[in-house]
Amino acid sequence: MSWFSIDVVPKTFLGVDVGSSALRVVEIGGWGDRRTLKNYGEIRMRTMYKEPFRSFEKSALLLSTQDIARALRGIFEEVHITEKKATFSISDFSTFFTTFQLPPMKDAELGEAVRFEARRHVPLPLAEVVLDWQLLEKTKDKHSRILLVAVPKEVVNYYEEIARLAGLKLIALEAEIFGNIRSYLAEEKDPAVLVDMGSHTTTVSVVANSTVRLSQTTNMGGNNLTDRVAKSLSIDYEQAEKEKIQKGIHLAQGNVRILVPIIDVIGTEIRKALEVFERQRAGTVRKIVLSGGSAKLPGLAEYFEKQFGRRTEIINPFRNILYPPLLEAVIKDMRPSYSVAVGMALRGFE
After folding, report:
1. What is the pLDDT of residues 135-146, one digit of tens each?
2. Distance between CA atoms of residues 164 and 160, nearest Å
3. E strands along the chain, which residues?
4. From the CB of residue 31, how many other CB atoms can be counted at a distance below 10 Å?
5. For 227-247, how does the pLDDT look when each residue is reduced to its tens digit (9 = 90+)?
6. pTM (2 d.p.)
7. How many structural domains is the chain composed of?
8. Structural domain of residue 155, as residue ranges?
9. In-domain check, residue 1
10. Closest residue by Cα to residue 319 from 210, 195, 187, 198
11. Rounded CA gap, 178 and 201, in Å?
12. Is residue 243 part of a domain?
C-alpha cells in the first residue's frame, strides 16, 4: 500500500520549443501545486545552417529531423538533462486556427458536425491533417461556438521523428499559443490580446478564459526589424541586431524612427483583433501581453500601451515557478523567449 497520492509524488517533464530562431528546452519538476525550474538550455538555429540564417524563407526553415535531434542531444549532454518525457511545440505558421458557429444540436452530435464543417474551413484535404476542436461557448439561442485547430500530418510526423531520434517519450504536440496561455494566462479572468513576436512571424490572438477566441499570423517578425536597421543604416546584419537590441523602437536615422513602420504593421493586426472580438460582445480586452524574443525591444511595450490605451506587459512564464535567486537576472532576460517551452513542460502536469 502506497502512503503517497499521485499528486505528491515528484514528477519531471520537458518542454521543447523548436522555434525558427532557436531550439529551447526547459525541464520543470514538481509535486502537488509546487513547480521548480530544474534545467534549461538552447541553441541558436543560425549555428546549424551553412548559409546566413536570414536568407532562408519561412517555408524552408525546417532542418532535417536528424539535425534537430542531434542538437537536442547536445543540449541534454551540455546541461545534464536525463528526463525523457517531453511535450513539443508546433509553430503557429504550421497550425491552422478558426472559429465558427454550429446550430442547436445534442452534444453527442457535435463531433460529427465539426468534422463536416471543417471541410469548409481547412485549406487542405481532411485526410492530410490532424484535427482538434474545443467548444468555446453555448450562446443564448443554444448555438455552439467552436474553436477548430488543424495541423498537417506531415508536420506531426516531423516532430514525432525528432522525438524518436532524440530518445524522448513524446507526451503531446501543441501549437505554440497554448504554451503561452498555460505559462501566463491560465488564471487570467479578463480577455487579453497575446502578441507572440517570433523571428519570422508575429501571431496576434485574443485569449479569454484560457481559450483562443481568434488568432491571426502575419509574416512580420524580429528579422524584419533587423533587416530594416541594416538597410537604413548601411551596416551588416550582426551590427544591426546589436543596434536593435540596444536602442529598440527609439533607433532613428535623423528624425525618423526606423522601426516604427514595421511596428505599426503589427499594431494594425492588434487593432483588427480588438475590433473583431469586441464586435462579438464577448468581453472587454483590458491588457496586451507581449511574448517572443522581440517582446524585449526597448520602448515597444510603452509604444503599444500609448497606441491602444491598454496596459501592456512582457510575459513572465516563471512567475509561479521556483528557481535559485542567483538566476534572477538571467531569468528576467529569458522570460519572453522561454514562455512556449515553459508552457509545454507544464502540460505534463495536467
Report:
1. 888 888 889 989
2. 6
3. 11-18, 22-31, 34-44, 85-90, 96-102, 129-138, 144-152, 169-175, 192-197, 202-208, 211-218, 252-253, 256-257, 287-291, 311-314
4. 15
5. 999 999 999 999 999 999 999
6. 0.88
7. 1
8. 6-347
9. no
10. 187
11. 17
12. yes
